[in-house]
Amino acid sequence: MKPRHKRAAIVLGVLSAVGMAVALVLNAFNSNLVFFYTPVQIAAKEAPQGRTFRVGGLVEAGSVKREGVTVNFIVTDTLKTVPVRYEGVLPDLFKEGKGVVAQGQLGADGVFAAREVLAKHDENYMPPEAADALQQAEKMRNKMAGTLAATEPAGAKK
Amino acid sequence: MIPELGQFILMLALAVALVQGIVPMVGAQRGRADWMALARPAAWLQFTLVLLAYFCLTASFVRHDFSVLYVASNSNSALPLPYRVAAVWGGHEGSLLLWVLMLSVWTVAVARYSRSLPLVFVARILAVLGLVSVGFLLFMLVTSNPFDRLIPAAVDGRDLNPLLQDPGMVIHPPMLYMGYVGFSVAYAFAIAALIGGNLDATWARWTRPWTSAAWIFLTFGIGLGSWWAYNELGWGGWWFWDPVENASFMPWLVGTALIHSLAVTEKRGGFKVWTVLLAIMAFSLSLLGTFLVRSGVLSSVHSFATDPRRGLFILAFLVIVIGASLILYAWRAPRVGLGQRFGLFSKESMLLVNNMLLVTACGGVLLGTLYPLFLDAMGMGKISVGPPYFDTVFVLMMAPLLLLMGVGPLMRWKQDDAGSLARRLRWALVFAIVAALLSGWLMGRISPATTGGLFLAWWIVAAISVDLIERLKPKPGMGGSIVGRARLLPRAMVGMMVAHLGVAVFAFGVAMVKTYETERDVKMGPDASTDIAGFHFRMLSLKDVQGPNYAAAQAEIEVSRDGKVIALLAPEKRIYRVQNNPMTEAAVDSSLLRDLYISMGEQLPTGEWIVRVQHKPFIAMVWGGCLVMMLGGLLAASDRRYRARQTRSAAIGGATAGRAA
């Protein structure tokens, strides 16, 4: 091989290697993205079944029930709720009425099987996803209240 | 009085930093020796001032001065003294002060240990460091003043985050910061060389020990952080791919690439342009890391909204540092010229691949860390990228990296012969395969993925052994005993071998713990027991204990194997009084071969507890590997060559620099 060809071979090799590496990284990225859904979106059947995603909101007061190491609780965004089942030790800051984010899959029975439950390090700190869910629900409630007030007496529809 | 004094001293430090950043730089351009000579005393003065300001803040913490906002937010009258001293870096403002202090420590270190370097070069380096310091001091004084008063003063403080009340946390941030900030030295060397136009092997030799030093601190800091998370967070995990961890890991990856690329620049004069780019990248990522972790952007991108000045300042600072460096780079780099040619099958090629893999891995981490933040900031929805992504990227990049780590060091510069290399390494290959299968078999189960990981670890060990044996063989013209020959091995070479051995130890630990760890969540009350991995856990008692600023439920659990008691562990669930937060205090029985890890979950209405018990084989090797890598770095950085030959080459470098200026 002439030196010129050799250099071309190196450059080509490097480029194709980098290209391959980037393609692999992007592919891994794409297949491991975890999307976030609010209880309202889940109630509207927007969330996928059989794919891992996150749900966030508040732990509904009085909803936490333990059976041995299995724990059932309800996540609410104050508008809709999602029942969640989790096996294992909950994080220290998991509390009724506080923000929570669960990651897992939605079962056919409508129960969200969480593989991971996140509640963050600070009692005043709301997980961003949970805060987001509450905010969206709030917006929606305002909108709904507006339309309801216009058509029928408010509170007729729960 | 003390806080005002501290603030005043900080302002003085800013003035000195300005002088240090401008006067020597201009002096270097104009060839004024007297202006350049100002750099060293300015560096010392700035260090003294920042240290004094730091003492002022520490004094406010020690004296419980809750009229200082920062103290009131991060301390409490019940907080023990060592944690009050450490609480200085428990929040955003104090962390910045620590950052600046570390920067001035590095700066005086450069001022002190650069006697043999030409004055022009030193003046430019110290000026660049001074300018970086200006940026941070301004940021602190304008947006994040640690000395801000709280009027009226708080009766008591809000306490230090309980998670940070741990001895590991006392030394973790300073070590990490020493590493982050250390890359500013490599950066300053690169910028000074770009300005002076003397990017050459000499420059690389000067930069190498400083880069290694920064890398050592960063390695230690990251390892310590992982160890702390393992012991303190109560989950038994040691790496979470959390954005905070990623922020420290990215500079490490690029810094590691930089160390390797500097080797090529020094030995063969190659990769010069690339090396400079890596130095700029390493420092930029350090800056990004500091800001990501401390600005609050991670907990919510909207937290900037509470203080938009902070966010704007950070963005502007990053843009100026990275932008200015890249413009200078684009302007100067094309004149640098290429190094010597090298063949397709050579040590240079191997190091090139090493750099590509490390930088791609860093790019992957950057994508996974910043993309969710970016989407959120743009209001395009929330996503998260979890450990599976990062794990995949890492296995993809690290497997070839570790494979080549065995081959690369044995190769010759410029051109090598594949056939002879294969002959030299064939027994190492056989050994690695046998050892991998054997270690899997000893653990009772052989799986393809684990065997792959174990093979890579043993492969590196075997290849290092081959390298060492070849180098210690008697050669014509080199007599003496084997000990004598071992003494003649250059420290940098031994350091490389030790650091690579550290990687092998680390890979071994990761492969083992990932495959063979077992955990179980069980319901336990007094006298209840459970078994995992052949260990018998029995709860003896449950009691309440009182700490200085917390109350805790403590379980006493006896661990036995084959009827023999081997450990008595006492995990706790603590409630810190001030913030009223529960904290899991795990109990760990550590040994080289395995850890037993017990943490308490929550109490059931029946009074029993959910307890998590874990068996983690070889996890100590994860941190052991980091320590060995660090040791390798220390050996390499202490090579005499970096100091002994400086005097002669300094004269030459001075001449060229003088001409360029």
Structural class assignment of chain A = alpha+beta
| Mean pLDDT across residues of chain A | 80
Shape of chain A: elongated
Through-space gap between termini of chain B: 47 Å
The residue ranges of chain B in which pLDDT falls below 50 over 5 or more consecutive positions are 645-661
CATH topology of the largest domain in chain A: OB fold (Dihydrolipoamide Acetyltransferase, E2P)
What is the tally of helical segments of chain A?
3
Radius of gyration of chain B, whole Å: 27 Å
Largest sheet of chain A: 5 strands, mixed, barrel
Order of helices and strands of chain A: HEHEEEEEEH
Query: Low-confidence parts of chain A, pLDDT < 50 over ≥5 residues?
Result: 151-158
CATH superfamily of the largest domain in chain A: Nucleic acid-binding proteins
Number of E strands of chain B: 11
Oligomerization state:
heterodimer
Strand arrangement, major sheet of chain A: 2-4-5-7-6
Instruction: State the end-to-end distance of chain A.
Output: 79 Å
**Overall residue-averaged pLDDT value of chain B:** 88
- How much of the sequence lies in strands of chain A comes to 25-35%
Description of the structure:
The complex is a heterodimer of chains A (158) and B (661). Chain A is of the alpha+beta class and 158 residues long. Chain A is built from 3 helices and 7 strands. Chain A has 2 domains: 33 residues; 117 residues, Beta Barrel (OB fold (Dihydrolipoamide Acetyltransferase, E2P)). A 5-stranded mixed β-barrel of chain A has the order 2-4-5-7-6. The C terminus of chain A is likely disordered. In chain B, the strands form 2 sheets. In chain B, strands 3, 4, 5, 6, 7 and 8 form a 6-stranded antiparallel beta sheet that branches. In chain B, strands 2-11-10-9 form a 4-stranded antiparallel beta sheet. Chain B starts with a helix and ends with a helix. The interface between A and B is large, with 41 and 48 residues.
